[in-house]
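Lab notebook: predicted structure, single chain.

Context: the supervisor wants predicted structures on file for every construct in the current expression panel, including those that have not yet been purified. This is the next one on the list. No modifications to the sequence; it matches the entry in the shared construct table.
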Amino acid sequence: MRTLLRLIFVGLVAAGLAGCKREETKTSGAAPGDPAASPTLTIGVAFETLQTEYWVAGYEAIKSEAAKRGFKVLEAVADGDANRQFEQVKNFITRKVDGIILVPKDAKTCIPMIRAANSANIPIVLFNRPSDKSDTKSVAVVADNFALTKSTVEYMISEAKKTGKKHKAMILMGDLGDINAVGRRDGFDAAVKEAPEILEVVARIPTEWNQEKAQSGVVNALQANPEISFIFTSSDFLFPGIVSALKGAGKYKKAGEAGHVILGGFDGDATAWQMLSEGYLDATGVQDVYFEAQQSVQAIVDLRAGKTLPEIIRDPGFVIHQGNAREKSAQMWGANVKKK
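Prediction complete. Output recorded below exactly as produced.
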């Protein structure tokens, strides 16, 4: 009997040690950010709008990244209403989410939302649109609007130089209450300033991210300055109106054709990809939506773990143009949207 009890005891100890070893292997083998290393989290995702393809692509990329990690997502879209978005954020807080990813209407209206999340000790990450400076704490994952725009316009200028003539230029500006629009305008101006012998800016179109306003502005600018041969838009979202205006003026030509207007944009959407593929678009600055989504979700994990992160995580993006379109298409979110 004593021998039997001893055998049973040894078996139980061995089984316990084996179980510990299996658990230790599972934990130690998980890399940082791996679902196996993180508990199941619930993340509130609040977008100000899904008006453009970029916001839709970002929304889907964040949900996909969360799903890869086994995280739950609560969704909210404010349809441009900052007060509604504040209520949506407060609802997330009431439901005790583990983190919030927010696309605010602008840099100011998000500050009370961030403060509410801070008070509840819930980490909050701003996707693609940072807040103004304040006493609140958040992390923003955002494209380097200035640098990416400057690089895009520099490429366009290099194409303009090849023509051997000076060009009259137009820029379509976004809503200058949006810090992203300001960065893109400033990037354009910085590039143009370095090439006064190549470009003369004769039209600055305030669009406020509105298609109709953009199209009307381009039509009027082309009537006032029919020699315009260089156009940059602060968002590819506005290309349909630009194309319509150019067609109406008989100026929508492919690169290399007589009368071609050098065209460039920012975002990397499906329309830009189609225009690039067909030869009408010279270049666009592509925001890496997949990088931004991955970094946003990872930032929630890191903040919950007590890690110190920079206030801004920059997405460098890349310029896609006629010379590298085939090479870069797989990285361009708009090209992938177009394939679906």
